[in-house]
Design a protein that fits this description.
The complex is a heterotrimer of chains A (51), B (230) and C (213). Chain A has 51 residues and is mostly helical. Helix content of chain A is 88%, strand content 0%. Chain A is rod-shaped. The termini of chain A are far apart. Chain B is mainly alpha-helical and 230 residues long. A two-stranded antiparallel sheet of chain B has the order 1-2. In chain B, α4 packs parallel to α6. Chain B is globular and about 65 Å long. Chain C contains 9 helices and no strands. In chain C, 46% of the residues are buried. The chains are: A mainly alpha (51), B mainly alpha (230), C mainly alpha (213). Chains B and C meet through α5 and α6 of B and α7, α8 and α9 of C.
Chain lengths: 51, 230, 213
Amino acid sequence: MTGGEYVAAAYGVVFVFLLVYVAIIAAKLVRLQRDTAELLELARRREHPDA
Amino acid sequence: MSSAFLRIQGLPALAVLAAGLMGLALLLSFFIAPEDGDQGISQRIFYIHVPIALTAYFCFGLGAWKALLLLWRGDERHDLESYVAIHQGTIFGTLTLITGAIWARASWGVWWSWDSNQLVLFLTLFLFYCAYFMLRFSLPEGPRRARSSAVYALFGVALIPVSFLAIRLAEDFIHPTTFTRDGPQMTGTMFAAFCVSWAAVTLLAYVLYRVELVGKRLHTDLRELREALE
Amino acid sequence: MSYLADVAALTRKDLRVELRAQDTLPAMLLFVLSTLVVFHFALPEGTGEDAAYGLLWVAIVFTALLGLARAWVPEQEHGVFDGLVLAPCDRSAIWVGKTVATLAFLLAAQAVALPAFALFFAPLDAVALVGVLLADIGICAVGSLLAAMAAAGRARELLLPLLLLPLSIPLIVGGVGAAISTEPGRYLLLLALYDGIFAVLSWASFEYVVTES
């Protein structure tokens, strides 16, 4: 590998790490959204217990 | 009590600033700084590798600071902050080792060198903080875990100068020393590129730290909400 | 003065328990001697003396780990830990007492192991022995605290080595350096610095680590 390719590899690794981080945050958001939906359902049932 | 709302408002602006600084850093690193005479183009890895290493130290320092606050003031919030900071430090530490290995391969032809004392120092600290997570996962949640983690985080920071001294005792011929006692051995533009890179990476780490913290606090808040509703 | 009296009482208690039960010290002794025998087979023909010193330090650290793993067990087995912590003495005195007792066991084991090493592998001069003593202090000081931390959780036998090994690296550098370097003074200074910093840190933070709430 030439010098330039090593530089690209180093910066590329950083870039990939950041993207993986974004993916993990996205997964966490999905879970948070699901939890919020469940809690919303619980709250609604409290408001209208007979519905 | 643990509402994350007030703390998040400045975050998008910080993230934009980090993005801008990073763009400037890349511009300086690749297009404006001159090419190094000895190492050629692979020297440019320096502009991302060293800031990442310094940022890892910064994150560990932040974790230790939050740990000190926890022990000193007893506020439980600092436990999570310390944990997230150390988590960031470990991630950046991993990146340091990887980019360092790539640079080593480019400059010296080997992926690792036990002769390089700075690498060994960093590896020691990295292992130390990996053990931090082992400690956390083996203790049951509660104030005792928070305090033990905090004490351990502080030990890590104390370990840094002591390990550094231990390593300095042996001669170091291989790891390029960019900062000697006379000052940086770089030209003005190279130094500028380095500084901007450093600021960009540090700010990036801080933004990621805040983002992760918000996520964790949201999770805790929702759990509390669930307990209130069930 | 009563602080020192507390420490003396706690140390005496640990030594007396060990004298009666006699499980930790014989184990450490046997372990370090067995390790030295293993070294004889582990070191290939013609290896320099320096390698032997390196292995000696590995043996010392692992022997210390053995002793430390058992350090808080008497308290836990008899449910005394909480009682000890509630005892009307400064909690840090408990740490000092435990550190001194563990140090005593380590030194006792080394009193046999080091002459054996000097006889069969490589000579140990006074400087090297001072290095061993200083490093012992560091290992016991930090180890007592880490053992107390690990004792609260599960898998404590696995956790203690993981916690102690990175912290023991400067000590190993110092100890080996004191034995083989032509300028051992710097290494002894490093060991003394480590002991100073980490003993104070351990002493100060013990209370935070053992209190329940």
